[in-house]
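ENTRY TYPE: paired fold submission
RECORD: A
CONTENT: sequence, then structure tokens
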Amino acid sequence: MNKTTRILVVDDNVEVLRLFSEMLRVHGYEVWEASTGRRGLQMTRQMRPDLLLVDVVMPDLDGIEVCRQVKADALLSDVFVVLVSGQATSSAEMVRGLEAGADEYITKGTDSAEILARIRTIVRLRDTTAALRASERHYRSLVDILPDGVGLIDLEGRIADANPQAVAMLGFNDREELLWKNTLDLIEAEDRERFKANMASALETGIMRNAEYTMIRKTGQRFAAELSAAVSTNSSGRATGLVMVARDITEHKRAEEELRHLSRRIIEAQEAERQRVARELHDGVNQVLASAKMRLRKVEDIASELKPAAREILSRSHRLITQALEENRRIAYNLRPSDLDELGLAAACQNFCKELRSRTNLRVTCSVPRLRRQLAATVELNLFRIVQEAVNNVEKHAHAKTVRVRISQKGDSMMLQIRDDGRGFGAKTPKAEKGKWRGNGLHNMQQRAMSVGGACEVKSVPGKGTVITVRVPLKPRC
């Protein structure tokens, strides 16, 4: 028997009071006594027993009124009340007592063993209920201190409950003002069909994670939110609604945009420097090399009088200068391909792949159809740089035989895909290679894609190659 269970017995009949008290003490309960209804109510409020055993008929305050006041007090929610009577034993009286909130109704003529069994049952029920309430209070307190908004959405899409953060996030004055609002009214009109579809899917699959929506505060202000949801069920496992967590990601989106602008400025600065160096190579170094080549040619024209060894040195020097000129042009082209500015992305990619085929053993295919819509200059430049980065890394590290470059237009977005049949990589790729390829190279491509509002995805399987996919939203040419 649970010896810590505390029972307050209230009865104006001293002999009955003593009889009940002794019976309960014998079976290990801690028992307190009160001989009037008012005293019993006062002790209940002060001492908060686990169980209140109270006589119905008393001269000052009857047991039903005591029960009604106990049940109306939120601080006494864990106190169970058993009404006991030897006079008010009719069905009508019992109904009246139970309607007042009593958890059990016992007549004094009942056998003591039955009374004790019924009290034991009530004590077990009380302990279980108290544990459930404590658990509910515990989880409620956790929900209330979460930084995110949490709400319970019923099957009709209405807000049945919400924590203070949800109330504040949506701009309402208090919880009651928010309750029973339709969630669709809090979602931007263009997002509502997607929201309904996601809710239906969550009810079917049990969960929805990190879906972004534009939500509407009470004032009409729009803000970006990330919603997650899980199914709420009853004791029989039937869905009763959704528990939804909402996170205001306005600052996160602003930080993303600032990072995108920063990346764009860094890339623009890099491109400006590349263009400057390429121009200096073309206008400076190339001119010097070309001049030296012309002078060597003149010397070769009058070199018939020179010894064969001298003529061979002149010829070799001429070839080296020619080679240096070609290498210098290639470096300048990679720094800033002129055909990208003059002919566009398709021609630049095709020429780049053609040049790669001519100097390597790679089988390179390039599919860039004529675009239905011109791209912004910054988009063309960054897509070309991603092609350069990806293909150069394949050449250096992938040990591939084939590379395929494909650019296509999908609705209002542009898709670039670079696929190779090299050795690929996985989670256990050596750190040295990770720094060269998976680290800096991938980071550079992701930054370039992000700078024009796109995204870069890499899928690789060891021994089966790598696929890089970049998606960029289309914008008018600038």
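RECORD: B
CONTENT: sequence, then structure tokens
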Amino acid sequence: MRDHGLVTPSIPTAAIVLAGGASRRMGTDKRLVLVDGQPMLRRAIDGLPDVDQILVVIDPARPVPRDLLPDRIVRVIPDLRPGAGPLAGLEAGLAGTGAALVLVVPVDMPWLGPDLLRLLVTRLGESPRSDVACLVADGRRQPLPMACRRGPALARVTRLLDGGEHRLRALVDDPATAVVAEADWRAVDGPGRSIEDVDTPADLARHG
């Protein structure tokens, strides 16, 4: 059973699930694809630690079936720039919450759990000059999952988008980003399954 203990008892914390992609590589709505008998969207939500608010960002042209959402309080919000990619989805999510601290997860990492997310929060707390914290894997900063300070991160995301940037990686590649070294997060998840994503039927077959 996953431990869903509070991330930060004293700091208002939200979680954003980015679920606005078109699922072109999967060939079907991957939010509905079953992994271990459960839709990936539901797994993404259930894998979060306890937070004050959960936001699911979607393309308004692709609504979420309500039966996919658990009893935990979840707010579904539309992408402000549909089709502009996950960076735009992050902007919508950050704009939709007033929480000071925000966790950001994708819909397609079905084995991501709360322990790894807490490491991101801890690393960000240790880095008062950083607006964003991410993991390092195979020597590269991983754009998701991430933790961020809402206000400064939203300002940076909007500047990037207004400047024509659509890659989420542009946010974490900033030198000021705090990072969780691979050795540190591997102590929580040795095989690294937490950050395996499922984008295609082949991914599903390989990891299932």
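NOTES ON RECORD B: The chain is about 30% helix and 20% strand. The two ends are 19 Å apart (CA to CA).
STATUS: closed
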